[in-house]
Structure formats: C-alpha cells, structure tokens
Amino acid sequence: MSEVVPLPAPPAARSLWQDARLRLLRNRAAVASLVVLALMTLACIFGPWFTGHPYDRVYQDYVRVPASLSAYPKAEALPAAIQRIALRIRATPSEVVVDAAEVRLVLTAQRPIDQRLLVYFDRSDQFGTPRITASEQEGRRLALAVPIKRQHFLFGTDSNGRDLLTRTLVAGRVSLAIGLLATGVALVIGVAYGATAGYLGGRIDMVMMRIVDVLYSLPFIFFVILLVVFFGRNFILMFLAVGAIEWLDMARIVRGQTLSIKRQEYVLAAEALGVSIGGILTRHVIPNTLGPVIVYVTLLVPKVILLESFLSFLGLGVQEPMTSWGVLISDGARAIQATPWMLAFPAAFLVTTLFALNFLGDGLRDALDPRDR
Question: Where, if anywhere, are coiled coils annotated (predicted)?
C-alpha cells in the first residue's frame, strides 16, 4: 500500500485589521511619522523637567537673547553688567578680571560703600552672592569675588526674558492636548450622531441632518467669541469649542457609511433575530465605520491644532503665562525682524507635527482601503 502523505496546513487567514497593520508597517513615511510624533510627544511631556528653567520664569538680564549652544552670560557682556550694578551701588569698578567661574573686581567710592548694597549682584540673573576679599581706605575700596551664574538658552529667550525652549515644549503640551481632546469630543459626538441618523433614516434622519446644516451656517469665530465673552479664556473652553464644531463633518461621514452598512446581510440577520437598535449600532454598524473614521481622525487632529493656533494668534486662545504654539508664533511674528528665532523654533515644531500627522493619515488611508488588499 502507498504511504499517505499529509497535506500541508493551510495558511492562517489574516483579518482586515491585521492586513492593514502589515501594510502600514511597510509604509516608511507613515512609520517615520509615527516615530516623530512619539518623540515629539515625549519631548513635550518630559522635556520641560530637564531644561532647567520654569516656563514662566522671567530673566530680566536675558531679554531677547539669541539661541546659543554655549552658556550665558558671554564674557564680553560681563563688564557692562558690572558697570550697571556698580552705578546702583554708587561706586566705580576697576581691575575687572573674568575667570570661568567668577569675576574679580575692585569697587571704589568717595564715601564708605554700604555693603548691604552688594545684594544687587545677588539679585542679578548673571551673578551670585559676592564675597569681599579685601576692604581698604575705611570701606571706600572693596575687593570682590563674584560668582557667575551660568545659564543655557538653546532656543534663546522671548520678549519677557523667558526660556523659549521650555515654553515651546510646554506649548506643545497644550496644542497636542487640545488637538487630541477636541478630536475625541468630535469623534464621540459625530460617530454616535451620524450612526443614529443613518440607521434610523426617514424623517428622523432628515430632522437630524437639518440640525447639522443649521449648525454649519453659524460662523465658527462668532461662536468662539461668544463663549469667550461669557465664560472667559481657558483650556477647557478651547477644546470644547473646537470639538463642538468639528463633529459635524464626522457625523456626515459616519451617516454615509451607515446608510450602506445597514443594508448588509449581517445587519438584516441581527434585525431578524430581534437585536435592539442600540445593540446593532454598537456591535455591527459603528465597528464597521471605524476604517474611514480613523483616517479622518488623523486628518482632524492637525486641523484642530491649526484652529487653536489661529485662535491663539487672534488673542482668543490660552492665557498667559500658559502658552501654545499659536501664541508663540503670534509673538514671534510681531518681532520677526529683531528676533527671528522667536518665530522659527515654535513654527518648526508646529510644521513638523502637522507634516507627520498628514503622512500618518495618508498611510492609514492606504492601509485601510479594502480595494488595495
């Protein structure tokens, strides 16, 4: 008798989501964008803890200093700073020697120098507490050793003397949070509203979509201004205002998908088995609309960030000392000729985030398209 050769096991079938994940991983631009977004989010969340500067700390001696990899103060700026402090003490500086860690100098005056006035060195952002090394001529001549406070401003400082790197990262927290939260509000309202309207159909669908048309006719800026007038400017208001408008497009997209899904055999079978409307929506309709919805969400997040930046540019966004990328770009645009770094760095973060989100959206659209399987 001939030996029976077992047939090889059939390959395991892949679901639509598994196939979409594999095709998304093969899209280099989408994967690179996902990595960039992850790094940007981590930098905005944890970065301000390592910059060494509070986001609202004002350095009066470092107003509008340019970006630099080396520490401030610069050696050439120290004599002028010492001269300003000496004028407050009513003394004349001389024999100024600048070392890496301290400045040695001599203060002379016509009367005995009040040593309490040396606190002006300590109040400065450039120097620490001075140490008197010698006192001559009955206190009219003091030899001082003044430590230097070294500060790093990798992105420079703004018009108020605040570290721009810290403020850019904190602004990223606000902009990304508003983008995600407002998109979440639009996702929940839009999916529930659109699926209900599309599945119920008839007069209910007509009434619900006419409400959407009425809301479309309301000017968005006018709506936001009314909210600001009545409730003031705050973080919660921003994402509620944006999310309460952006769900309209989501509702139309989900309604269109629901109109085709509700005629499918598995939905008709569920109706014949007596499944409730809520059960059909949550188990059959909404899960099958998530493909286009996920793609639209990735495109909605940059749109919301741009809306928040636009509102902040107009002065309707977050309040000082909190900031967002739109606020920083607005401040930088007003001082672009004198301080171009105030515009360049926040704009670079915003543009990079928007490009990454759009590339990721394109990759998800290609990966979730069943016609490309």
Answer: none
